[in-house]
Here is the input.
Amino acid sequence: MKRTLIITVLGLALTAGVANADLIAYWHFNDVTEAGALDQIDGLGTSAAKTAYTMDDGTGSGAVISAWDDGSAPVGTLVGTNGGAASNNFGADAGTTVNATNGTPAGSGLQVAGSDNNGASIIIKLDDALWNCVLSYASSRTTNGHATQTIDYSTDGGSNWENWGIINPQVGTTTPSWGTATVNLGDVLDNTSGANMIRITLAQVGGQFPDYASTWFDNIQVKGDSVPEPMTMAFLALGSVCLLVTGKTRRIRGR
Here is the structure.
């Protein structure tokens, strides 16, 4: 009986501080300002004051989406300004409740338009080290839009990238036909806090396409288990050793 008790407490100690899969970061793109054919996504600032888009919800710390090709870190490479024109730009268009969470309304979504955005990317930067990481988002494209979304990840702040695979978004016409993309990254993002990034790169297979061709994104979620800080892990390990020693001592005295 004592041995069973010791093992049970040890298991609890080793898992303390590690949350169940949680909503680490969420972007819904619903906060917008009217700017023209495409509205301006408030979280991305303006063309005069470019900023990374901090998360709209989640338990993580400091997660952002970078869309601007402005030399900042991390560097997104979308071409155009935030809102305004309908071609060779990006901004807010009609959104969806597909992959939404916490009752978030459809609101708006991110539209990336134009042939100049062929090969362009957005980057999700995570300040948290994660286990069991899953990226999911709603997406669609026009018939002649960006046919693929290549997913890469980095655990060293973008110095090196590893390929996860390719997402083929659901095809609409001139309006979105939303589907859900799910990217299971597992434990690859358990590296140093602040060094983890996910890159989504748009590409058109088969050559050029019209400037009005578009891809839509909405309700981008990152879920996972936060990895305890090294000091927390050391404390848990020390506590576990103490439990084992205490248990052993009690067994000897009981003989």
